[in-house]
Amino acid sequence: MRPLFAVLLTVTGCFAADISGKWDVIAQSGSGPELKMQLVLTGSAPVLSGILSNPAGSVSVEDIQLAGSELKFKFAIGTTPFAVKVTVAGDAMTGAFTSPQGMSGKFAAKRDVSPTPAATPAEVKIETGEIGGSGYRIDIPPNYNGSLVIYCHGYGGNVKFDNRPNAMLALFTDSGYAVAQAGYSGAGWAVEQALTDTEALRKFFIEKHGKPKHTFVTGHSMGGLITLALVEKHPENYDGAMPMCGPLAPTLSVFQRHLFDVLVVFDYYYPGVIGSPVKLADNVRLDQDYAKELGKIIDADPVKRAAVAKYAGFKSPEAETALGIAFFANILKELSIRAGGNAFDNRNTIYYGGENDLLLNREVKRYHADPQATDYVKRYYTSTGKLSRPVLAVHSYYDPVVPAWATDEYGELVRLNGSSDYFVQRYTAHGGHCAIHPEETRKAFVRLVNWVTNGSRPRAGEQN
């Protein structure tokens, strides 16, 4: 689930003061990294509208309640709802956010007194519909430059689209690019459906609007892997790709190392709490009650929690361990159903990086893989490292969900296949899943376009 989101909200009610304008937001869970966002409120009481921006898509705010200076609202990222409650006092907002996974934290904002740019009078034309069970959305700006960006969303339910403004898409449409995105006809690890649905949407766009001058593909998290798969499998259809915070190395390897093995080690320290890594308990799910239940068990033994966090690479054991284990277990549970069994084999794995690696390797449970499940995960998707189109990958230096080493390993695969001229990796100086700010996304895309159109290959390094 990505951490970058843009939210359209409509607020009804009355504030004693004018709260329209730009607000710089900082959200923080426990001792975890700060997430910086921007809230732009426009209009006047009793009707206000606005956008909460921070690089990961867009969702609508619901169940909005305004009483005096107290503002409450809810929104969903994928299928996971969040709730925010703040008190507004002059040029400051203070309050908290909560999530069903048990994550909670501070939500604070200060008004930016610099002038807010006037809105562009011309509106983006938005088309929505369905192709083969997959919803879609196409945004065409009034200054359409003839080129198309295909956007691939991350892990979660099959997305249903509306025609509300989308801050993330505006990064492209403001520069004249059309944007098309498929919702996928499957939920969860829907790479199989996403590849087919996205290609169907690309063909539909051509049939309706003509062949684009250039076609680029990009996406966050699982959408980053789908981005890479599309440019590897169908290079004739894409001029360049920008996967962001994606698990780009072969999925079987990434999931084995960061999901399956982490759950194996968790089960060593907390036996039976999640069932087992190959047969997850019936109560494993992504909701608030389960996350709280799991968190209480984990937090009861801080020494074991620290050992699990150390092995998993979580920088904030208190804030990230329960959420990470719940999320990883949910992915593997859904994937085992989709693949028809356990895809992972740890009989030859040597575990290291814990508190007592010798004891861990002697006592950890070992499992063999179901061949048909392994074959499924290999198909969806094993990256090849064979490129013939420019690929600019962007990742944060610390990502607890998709570690940066997943992109590093893909870079080595590219080098071994002699495709290094077509691959560049850049990083952002932020911690968190998909912690890539809007301006960083825009500038990275500009570099990709320059690479495609005039051969100006960007340098690897920090994206700012």
Short précis:
The protein has helices at 167-173, 191-209, 222-233, 251-269, 288-299, 302-312, 317-339, 357-363, 371-379, 405-416, 438-454; strands at 6-12, 21-28, 34-44, 47-53, 58-67, 70-77, 80-89, 92-98, 104-112, 125-131, 134-140, 148-152, 178-182, 215-220, 240-244, 275-276, 279-280, 391-398, 423-431, 461-462. The chain has 464 residues and is of the alpha/beta class.
Architecture overview:
The chain is an alpha/beta fold and 464 residues long. It folds into three domains: 107 residues, Lipocalin (Beta Barrel), CATH 2.40.128; 208 residues, Rossmann fold; 128 residues, no CATH class. The protein is 32% helix and 29% strand. The protein contains eleven helices and 20 strands. It is globular, with a radius of gyration of 22 Å. The relative contact order is 0.12.
Topology:
Elements: E1 6-12, E2 21-28, E3 34-44, E4 47-53, E5 58-67, E6 70-77, E7 80-89, E8 92-98, E9 104-112, E10 125-131, E11 134-140, E12 148-152, H1 167-173, E13 178-182, H2 191-209, E14 215-220, H3 222-233, E15 240-244, H4 251-269, E16 275-276, E17 279-280, H5 288-299, H6 302-312, H7 317-339, H8 357-363, H9 371-379, E18 391-398, H10 405-416, E19 423-431, H11 438-454, E20 461-462
Parallel strand pairs: 1-5, 12-13, 12-14, 14-15, 15-18, 18-19, 19-20
Antiparallel strand pairs: 1-4, 2-3, 2-9, 3-4, 5-6, 6-7, 7-8, 8-9, 10-11, 11-13, 16-17
* Number of helical regions: 11
CATH class (first level) name of the largest domain: Alpha Beta
> Biggest sheet, open or closed, and with what strands and sense?
9 strands, mixed, barrel
Q: List unreliable stretches of 5+ residues.
A: 1-17, 43-48, 116-121
Counted beta strands: 20
Strand content of the residues, in percent?
A: 25-35%
Helix/strand-derived category reads alpha/beta
Tally of discrete structural domains = 3
Distance between the termini: 23 Å
Helix content: 25-40%
CATH superfamily name of the largest domain? Alpha/Beta hydrolase fold, catalytic domain
CATH topology of the largest domain: Rossmann fold
Question: CATH architecture of the largest domain, please?
Answer: 3-Layer(aba) Sandwich
How would you write the strand order of the largest sheet? Answer: 1-4-3-2-9-8-7-6-5
Cα-atom radius of gyration: 22 Å
Average pLDDT for all residues? 86
Principal-axes geometry comes out as globular
